[in-house]
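Researcher: We're reviewing a set of sequences before deciding which ones to prioritize for further study. For each one, I'd like a predicted 3D structure that I can look through quickly. This is Lysine N(6)-hydroxylase/L-ornithine N(5)-oxygenase family protein. If possible, include the structure in token form so it fits the rest of the review sheet.
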Amino acid sequence: MSYQIAPDYDVVGVGFGPSNLALAIALDDCRRQQRVSCRSLFVERQPSFKWHGGMLLPGSNMQISFLKDLVSLRDPTSPFTFINYLHKSGRLLDFTNCKTFYPSRIEFNDYLRWVADQFSAMVNYGETVVAVEPVMAGQSVVALRVVTQTGTGEALSRIARNLVVAVGGVPHVPPVLKPIAGDRRVVHTSGYLGSPLITELHGQAPRVAVIGGGQSAAEVTLDLSERFPDAHIDLVFRGHALKPSDSSPFVNEIFNPEYTDYFHSREDAQRASIIRSFRNTNYAVVDPDLLDQLYRLTYQQRVAGERKLVLHPRSEIVGAGVTRDGITIELHNRDEDVLSRASYDAVVIATGYERSPVPAFLDPISRYIEAGALDRDYRLQTVPGFRPQVYLQGCSETSHGLSDTLLSVLPMRAQEITASLVATADRPRGQEHDPHMEERVYS
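Model: Here's the predicted structure for Lysine N(6)-hydroxylase/L-ornithine N(5)-oxygenase family protein, in token form for your review sheet.
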């Protein structure tokens, strides 16, 4: 394997979704306003910028205000606000006439891409980080070697003084569904729109199972009903009913940036209690307007004497298998203690995402990390003699609160990490990697 060793970077960002995009803005602001520059590079495994591409459904709207964009809550005068995006796109007045705080998900993705395009010079797309290794000087770790792999299989290595990890979540597939997860007729919502099912099911009256009781499950169910009017859809979920998300004003204050201070200062037991108390803001819940649409759909089907969409509450999947004719799902209705089995032409898994506290590519430096604990500035606690700073974004719900995986705190979190990077900058010139060095090492 060959490694191309690139020049030094003050910070390498892993992933270039909204979190590290907000960081790129904050670093740029620091350069312009404080004249403190960090040589930065971001690496992103996708071939181009796209935010939740599998769920950019027609008619799906954001669930938070456009003011909670990448920068407005920190600096509403920034050129990277959603308002300026509308202005530059020639749609500001038209959007105002829509009388809404909630743009479509497609438009918000376009806003994010518009910002990302302005930082394209510092982003390498199509690279996956496979390892982060220590660079030693004596007994101290003075930098990190970030090893990536391109789509063509080439391995690249870059030296970074600091690292900011924002890789998002990995699609969660419950263990009972893993025997069928590899079948082409089964898709997680993360890949829904890119699935061949969208085209292959046309012209049929397919039987489709949607597994899950949250926002994504409801959105996919409605989308399937519109795409395939003759489809028979079973929506399977464990709860007693589809529940509305709580987005009331007082509850929404838990997503304010200052609430992070309060949450982080609590003991572990109290943090867990807070998360349990507010789960109905984000987990296994559905936007009330979407619930109304689903209910009206089921009601109109009753009026017409046809029930193509059937809800299966209080139901747990106890078995799943693949046959030539379809995907077999075995359900247990806990309330009635009844087992049933059905075959489907397609299955959509809408069971959310998993977020690893410390991603596997950090394993080579795991011995320097102290129990995966995060400081208030999102920095991993490390042992003495480990000089690089490693920050995690979007996987710290248990230490920083429910807002950590959402968009609400992006601007302030990016500013906090930028301030920490500047404050902890420690760059002894005698131990720096030569910025002009570029060599190929064969092994």
